[in-house]
Amino acid sequence: MVSGDQVSKLIIAISLWRLSDSATFSGRYKVATGTGTAVQVEKTMDAEHQALAELYQQGFDPAEYLRYNYSYPRADFSKEDSFTVCLLKTLHKAFTEGDIKGGVLLDVGSGPTIYQVMAACEIFDKVIMSDFLEANRNELRNWLENNGKCSLDWSPFFKYACKLEGREPSAWEEKAARLRKVLKGIVPANVHLPQPVSADVVPPEGADCIVSCFCLDAACLTMPLYSRDLGHVVSLLKPGGHLMIVGTVGMTYYYGGPQANVSTFPFTEVEVCQLLRENGMSLIRLEMFPLPQKEETTDDAKAILFVKAKKD
């Protein structure tokens, strides 16, 4: 359980999943009401995504992103309520509850990070990571090839993951070797496309499990876009498969590098749940842990959101 004065965990009752459309939800995100056809709306979506894609391609800096978000003080493993500790603990719990099994796990929108598959690598024999940016995929390859070019030392993350598994921190190299063994691919991905990854990446029936951390909320500028792209991701999952999403609540921007201050849409947990239901997912658990607000920060997220769901 996440604890601490600054970061606390809020378990939302399953009844939230059954919320009907509220005036707030249905009224805020009507795209181009009375202003054109569905085709025009789709073109507007694609134009917005193209502009965002160009910003990422030209300005996103994996090394800067890692330095600001996955180094001290956010990566303070001496504090049980730190940002990265909460992420690792939540994912560890989700993967060790006994309900997730199978052969193939797909990480959609991996970014330049690997923490999100540290627990999964003990369950799955095939892990595929993916990202839109070649720069992020290169960062992942640097770690996979162990070539000394990584922008971040991941050993503290592995050591803490070992602690969660009841192993000595000294076992971290063994755990890293396990992840390198099962990491079978680092591939391009684009959640805006109906087929976000190449058709040969996952089995015809779909992946057994999909993880997506800080991807959809960083890639989608409106709720209709989020809904459409979430549907693209869900289509890669087999019936009965599990989806885990880590995202933000109330974030309007984040720092992706000196040339990439990225504007985002301030999603809420209710809206995310509503869209998951509309895309054929049944909620297993929703958790939130609020983030302390500071005068100077790399983002203005109010909380971190974790969702575990199962495809109907």
Please provide a written account of the structure.
With 312 residues, this protein is of the alpha/beta class. It has helices at 23-28, 38-59, 62-69, 83-95, 134-145, 155-164, 172-182, 216-219, 223-234, 269-278, and strands spanning 10-11, 104-107, 126-131, 183-188, 207-213, 237-249, 253-255, 261-263, 281-290, 303-311. Strands 1-9-10-6-5-2-3-4 form an eight-stranded mixed sheet, with helices on both faces. A hairpin with a 5-residue loop joins strand 7 and strand 8 (261-263). Helix 4 (83-95) crosses helix 6 (155-164) and helix 9 packs across helix 10 (269-278). It starts with 9 loop residues before the first strand and ends with a strand. Residues 1-41 have low confidence and may be disordered.
The coarse overall form would be globular
Taken as a percent bin, the fraction of beta residues is 15-25%
Count of runs of 4 or more consecutive helical residues = 10
What does the main sheet amount to?
8 strands, mixed
Mean pLDDT equals 86
Query: Which class best fits the helix and strand makeup?
Result: alpha/beta
- Secondary-structure element series: EHHHHEEHHHEEHHEEEHEE
